[in-house]
Amino acid sequence: MREKTRWYRESFALVGLRKPTGTDDFFYLNEMRDWIMKKLVGLSFGLLAIAALAGCGTTQAKSSADKALDVTMIGNPATADPAISGDSNSSSMIAQTQEGLYTLDQNGKVVAGVAEKMVKPTHNGTVYTFKIKKAAKWANGDPVTAQDFVTSFQWQINPQSKSQVANKLKFLKNYDAVQAGKKSVSALGVKALDKSTLQLTLSKPQPWLPDILATSEYPMKTDLFKKYGSKYGTSSTKTMSEGAYKLVGWSGTTDSWSYVKNTHYWNAKNVKIGKVNVQVVKDPGTSASLFKSGKVQETSLTGQYIKQNANNQEMKTTLNSSMRFLEFNDKKTVTHNTKVRQAFSYVVDRTALTKNVLQDGSAAAKSLIPYGDGNDPTTGKDFSEDVGNLLSYNPKKATQLWNEAKKELGIKKASLELLTADTDEQKHAAQYLQQQAQKYMPGLTLTIKSMPLAQQIAKGSAGNYDIDLDGWNTGWRDPSDFLQMADETSSVNFTKWNNAHFTNLMKQIDDTATHTTQQRWDLMKEADKYVTQQAGLVPLYQQAKAHLVSSQVGGLKYTMMTDAQYKYAYWK
């Protein structure tokens, strides 16, 4: 919801009152009344007001427990369907209102959620059997069943859902055959043994599965899914929550909605804040103003506003486990050319981009893998440090490669479109890229096309772009999640880059039954070096996240992998 600054009618200029355009009379009259009362109290009833405030202190303290938490989100979620959610805004909304077999504690550690306990796999790490808590309930009081997870997992992998996150479950037995339409979803390695017992059967071990179950995989209410089908999750009335909060007042186009405490949530007694009001605020200046005025208690910042709040004790800054990169449509003639992609990589001074343009704490990319995404099983060294810096700024090399590409393509000029989300961060990054590319790649016209994140993702998924300023945020510490973005067999490879050598490397990386942990690590290093050198994707920067959090609110913590969970928040 855009912030509406209050300007009053000029006819009331002497007393400082103006009616805002489009504001109804009821609101306006209330404003006049409040102003008059403030003046009267200030002039005539100061002592009485002080006495009254002193007398009602106890009442105010009691009511603070019912006070709503007001927060912002930087863009509009695309869906509330957990099986197909592929954008960060949707994932954020779903994480506040749903709970998986596992969940994250306040410090980001994986713990039991809907499942009674954390389980150890059997059959050489390929079979997980979960018992669902008897107290686990949907918002209408119905029990959460094993079938609700089966429904969700099957829909996620069903090719008809066109889920962008289907491959998060690619280690389930018969995943490939189901995705290819060669087998029914009933053949998938997910079974409801009875109402409260769920069994997952994998084709090979997946040591990072607990992270996925805690951050990405949630149940869907089976009877509602049967009723709405592909329309499930398109609004708050076409979905249901079983997490700490239920979703209220959301549709695909609304700019504000609420999370209301789910009284049937199994751990409801420990949820301290009964309502969270969310509004979409894309402009960081507006976010900062809303926070400063006390209208929101949590908001995210970017760019200059992070710099301006550097000494503000209410700002929390953390490197995010996410990477921004350029995707090049491999199905189009110009962007299919390897030298074109490499030229774009060389025109980017990543240090200047992060320090001078973004100014938000983001870190210059060294490869496709962000810092903190995994450690060498033998030495403990961070993956990005182990691989080293594979990227460099070399405008002369960029010009050389671009001119060679033009000769290969038989062209003298080219016009390309850069697709971005309409956020402050992406707009600034895109403008920098446009300037650098047109300066060092003669004959290139690069135009910027900005749009809401959900639309950007839809265009990217459909291959309706030339170059896409995209990003990926992982929910588990394993470099393969970023490497898959360039794997031709992956559902999240929007480039459709089809490189046989890289695809074979990814196939070996996924073969956890054959390769040791160290062998797999070395294969991931090789894959990272190869995709970066070939510019299958062009890494730009590891994102940082900065939040302003009111000193009146406790319990909101941020980690590299996760944002704060409102179910742990409380008023101080």
Automatic annotation (TrEMBL):
Transport as a keyword? yes
Q: What UniProt keywords are attached to this protein's entry?
A: Membrane, Peptide transport, Protein transport, Signal, Transmembrane, Transmembrane helix, Transport
One of the entry's Gene Ontology molecular-function terms is: peptide transmembrane transporter activity
GO cellular component labels: ATP-binding cassette (ABC) transporter complex; outer membrane-bounded periplasmic space
Q: Which InterPro entries match?
A: Peptide/Ni-bd, SBP_5, SBP_5_dom
Q: Where is the Solute-binding protein family domain?
A: 109-489
A biological process (GO) annotation for this entry? peptide transport
Reading the lineage from the top rank, the first entry is Bacteria
**Intracellular or extracellular location(s):** Cell envelope
Q: Which residues cross the membrane?
A: 40-61
Q: Short name of one Pfam family for this protein?
A: SBP_bac_5
First-listed, main subcellular location of the protein, grouped into a coarse class: other
> What does the similarity note say?
Belongs to the bacterial solute-binding protein 5 family.
**What is this protein's name?**
ABC-type oligopeptide transport system, periplasmic component
**What is the originating organism of this protein?**
Levilactobacillus hammesii DSM 16381
